[in-house]
Amino acid sequence: MNKKLLLSALMAVSALSMSAQARLSLNVGDAQKTVSPTLYGLMTEEINYSYEGGLYAQLLRNPSFCETTQPRQAFHPVPTQPKFWELTDTANASMRIVFGARLTQVDNARQSQKEANALSVITRAPGVSIINRGFWGIPVRPNTVFTGSLYAKGNSPITVSLESADGKTVYAKTVIDHVSADWTKFQFTFSIGKKAEPTKDVCFRVTFSEAGEYSLKHVKLFPPTFNNRTNGMRPDLMTMMRSMNPKFLRFPGGNYVEGNRFSERFNWRNTVGSPDDRPGHPSPWGYWSTDGMGLLEFMQWAEDVGAEPLLAVFAGYTLNGDYVTGDALQPFISDALDEIEYVIGDSTTRWGAQRIRDGHPAPFPLHYIEIGNEDFFDVSGSYSERYQRFYNAIKAKYPQLQLISTVDGNALRANAADPDKIRLDITDEHYYRDANEMYRQAFQYDRYDRKGPKIFCGEWATREGKPTTNMNAALGDAAWMTCMERNSDLVIASCYAPLFVNVSKGAMQWESDLIGYDALSAYGSPSYYAQVMFSEYLGDKIVPVRATGIPTFTLTDKQGGTVPQIYYSATKDSRSGHVYLKLVNVTGNANDVKITLSGAGKIGGKAQCVQLKADDAAATNTLDDPRHIVPVKSTVRVGADFSITLAPRSVTILDI
Ligand code: AHR
I want to staple 463 with a disulfide (CB 3.0 to 4.6 A). Which of 24, 107, 248, 512 is the partner? Predict the structure, then answer.
């Protein structure tokens, strides 16, 4: 080969390798845009036994006998039975539901003891019992004190006990002596000794000492709760949420705020005050909610994980498509205004005073109210009117609050009587996608108009893996989070959904969830750990990043397309000077990246590196292998110019 040919061949090779070199240039000196301090939060709703049989620590299923084999009617030839309670000796005893007073459909009346359902048990021999097996088990651990309560009527003592599911081991037992012909509330405790092995194969038993007629209402059992709150939450799940550093808690849904019909909406008035006085209601996902998790409990949950409430108010539309407009909206607008008053009112206000009586003297911090949920499903087009009426009423009383629309500005204006009168602070966008779609859309917000409303990404998830997500989903999530983070001047808040799933057989309605559990244990999906990492390393300024030579790959799904192999975002903590660089390599091959930092001042020789990775896209965590994929910390050498090799299928954060 002559010299000229050799030279041009060498130049071609070097041009190829130069274009193949992935390079990220961070302009740390030009970090001007602010990262929204509320970027990462939590979204919650009653789905997948998230509260009942989940976070809400009460352990007995159907504690108030609201779930019955037959609906409430004047006459049934066969006595109505409670669900999830078993009678041990049907030859010598019978039981039936005695329905409480009927509640009218859209009433605000609160239930009293007289209105609650009761269980009547008639025994013809001593020692008959009824059993509750909890929500797929009851957790027993060594050195644990349970607190329980029940209302009872009868003619002789009853015994309550915690036993192994086969009845062979009695963990704890208490005799309730003074049962009489009058309704009386009894409280009891169970102390589990230090030798007990952790298990969920446990049941709760009520034994009637003599033959006779007994009645029970509100039979409840609590394990120790987070921060020892009465009517509180499961500590393991609360601890996991705290690790996510959430800045807000969006509640009560999702679909749960709307309900399947008006009578099944989240009617907050029925969820405050004594839990025994709450009537409960069917959740939209096919099971009963006791409303033990009421408005105050939601806010205490937020407080306990260091977040503030982001309150979604019912906006006159239900999942079956019913809606109201005009004057018929007024009661629901009043509900919303009173609800806000309950959250932030002082002692001079009616509902602020009620909150204080309920046990929380200080108002809660509150900045955001969402009007409804996913009203783009309302094909009638009534949302524009409903939104506007709620918006005007809430702003008139609470001008400091930022209001969130569940549809975008164009749709709002298209259906409005006077489009010019529509005011829009924030719109909520929901994205449930697979990993490929997350990659395709990972630059979506870079293109958004900055003159429009701010964005709340109020539900999002990469839906791969079940019951909880797998590593491929975590890669899609991480790619999506780089997009939100790069654009967090616009995306002011975001929260993944759904948060929880009880993984016991029959408990899941929605696949691909963030945190899984059964009665005894809990674990985080790879997606959970990706979020823990992203929220832990978050600065207050967005660092502009110029990317060149990022390798791409072709997606082989129906939609196809070419997408980057590497996704990135960078922020800076202006007080500490730390720069956080997030890198996501979504492919099965390692990728070298050259990184340049300019305007960063002195850069230390070592940086902390936190990495989540897996060999297999389908790899995941489970109850049996809860820490298969977790973040691992190491140290790497960095400088103004350095290289890093990103492991296949990895999420990497450098704390520089
Ligand atoms: O998170 C599951 C459901 O998805 C929510 O209830 C609803 O808002 C959305 O459609």
Answer: 512
Residue nearest to atom 8 of ligand 1 (CA): 254
For 444-489, write each residue's pLDDT tens digit.
999 998 999 999 999 999 999 999 999 999 999 999 999 999 999 9
Question: Omega into 467 within 30° of 0, i.e. cis?
Answer: yes
- Distance (angstroms) between ligand 1 centre and the Cα of 254 equals 5
Contact between 440 and 559 under an 8 Å Cβ cutoff? The reply is yes
Q: How far is the CA of 240 from the centre of ligand 1 (A)?
A: 22
Q: CA dihedral defined by 446, 450, 452, 457, rounded to 10 degrees? A: 40
Q: What is the pTM of this model?
A: 0.94
pLDDT of residue 17: 37
Nearest protein CA to atom 3 of ligand 1, as residue: 254
Residue 656, helix vs strand vs coil? coil
* Å from CA of 480 to ligand 1 middle: 19
* Atom number, ligand 1, closest to the C-alpha of residue 497: 1
List Cα–Cα distances, 120 to 96, 184, 468, in angstroms.
Answer: 5, 15, 41
Number of helices (H), then strands (E), belonging to the chain: the values are 11, 35
- CA separation for the pair 157, 180 (Å, rounded): 9
Measuring from atom 7 of ligand 1, which residue has the nearest CA? 254
Question: Considering Cα of 231, then 234, then 237, then 241, what sign does the dihedral take?
Answer: positive
Q: Are 170 and 162 in contact (CB under 8 A)?
A: yes
Question: Strand, helix or coil at 544?
Answer: coil
Residue to mutate, 459, 496, 499, ligand 1, most ligand atoms under 8 Å from C-beta: 459
Enumerate residues lining ligand 1, CB below 6 A: 45, 47, 253-255, 373-374, 459, 497-498, 510
CA-based Rg of the chain, rounded to a whole angstrom? 28
Q: Does the pLDDT at position 56 exceed 90?
A: yes
Which residue, among 204, 211, 234, has the nearest Cα to 58 in the 3D structure?
Answer: 234
